[in-house]
């Protein structure tokens, strides 16, 4: 049986700068594309949300990802910033759902832990590990490497869940894995 390429779109949401990263997972992850959508602070918030939605639709139609992984907003002191960030995240999720993509959220700490082994790692440490793991030149904007980190975290979580699958016995294993029995 030939494995199908799996493409993960990782998003680091923001209303001024949104990072995105696409990785192909067959069998090991490699970068397809990474970058940012930079939005004008003078543009109204609703129009920026519209641009995020449209941009993600364009990315989805171009790369046909199988899944979307997105960084969950962290709790900050500024309530207005949190509301705006949450809206940006919601628009990104809506774009994915419009294309029937499964969506998974990850806490910033979980992403950092998954990539660097340290949940308190700096953005620069995450970028350096992304560069090393994916053999990809470090993006000039950290939001792009953060988005790649979200996608890679999702890849690791999915891979770990596949490896830790348990069976009730030999017959259940054989039934689930006929191609592994000779």
Protein model, in words:
By secondary structure, the chain is α/β, with parallel strands linked by helices. The chain contains six helices and five strands, in the order βββαβαβαααα. It has a five-stranded mixed β-sheet. α3 (108-116) crosses α5 (142-163) and α4 crosses α5. The longest helix is centred in the last third of the chain and has 22 residues, at 142-163. It is globular. The two termini are 14 Å apart.
Mind sketching the topology for me?
Blueprint: E1 6-12, E2 17-25, E3 29-38, H1 45-63, E4 67-71, H2 79-98, E5 103-106, H3 108-116, H4 123-134, H5 142-163, H6 170-176
Parallel strand pairs: 1-4, 4-5
Antiparallel strand pairs: 1-2, 2-3
What features would you highlight for this structure?
182 residues, alpha/beta, Nucleotidyltransferase, domain 5, single chain
Short synopsis of the structure:
With 182 residues, the chain is of the alpha/beta class. It contains 6 helices and 5 strands. 49% of the residues lie in helices and 19% in strands.
Number of domains: 1
Quick one: overall form?
globular
Based on secondary structure, the structural category is alpha/beta
The main sheet comes to:
5 strands, mixed
Compute the number of strand runs.
5
Spatial strand order of the main sheet = 3-2-1-4-5
Question: How would you state the average pLDDT, rounded?
Answer: 88
CA-based gyration radius:
18 Å
Which ranges are low-confidence, i.e. pLDDT below 50, for 5 or more consecutive residues?
Answer: none
Task: Determine the CATH superfamily.
Answer: Ribonuclease H-like superfamily/Ribonuclease H
Helix content: 40-55%
CATH topology: Nucleotidyltransferase, domain 5
Overall CATH class: Alpha Beta
Order of helices and strands: EEEHEHEHHHH
Distance between the termini: 14 Å
Number of helices: 6
């Amino acid at each position: 049986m030939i494995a199908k390429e799996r493409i993960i779109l990782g998003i680091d949401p923001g209303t001024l700068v949104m990072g995105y990263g696409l990785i192909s997972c067959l069998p090991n992850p490699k970068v397809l594309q990474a970058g940012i959508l930079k939005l004008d602070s003078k543009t109204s918030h609703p129009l920026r949300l519209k641009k995020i939605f449209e941009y993600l639709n364009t990315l989805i139609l171009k790369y046909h990802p199988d899944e979307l992984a997105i960084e969950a907003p962290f709790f900050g002191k500024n309530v207005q910033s949190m509301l705006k960030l949450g809206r940006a995240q919601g628009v990104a999720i809506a774009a994915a759902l419009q294309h029937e993509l499964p969506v998974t959220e990850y806490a910033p700490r979980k992403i950092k832990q998954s990539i660097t082994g340290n949940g308190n790692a700096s953005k620069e440490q995450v970028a350096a590990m992304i560069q090393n793991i994916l053999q990809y030149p470090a993006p000039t904007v950290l939001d792009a490497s953060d988005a790649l980190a979200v996608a890679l975290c999702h890849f690791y979580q999915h891979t770990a869940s596949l490896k830790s699958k348990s069976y009730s016995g030999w017959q259940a294993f054989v039934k689930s894995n006929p191609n592994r029995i000779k």
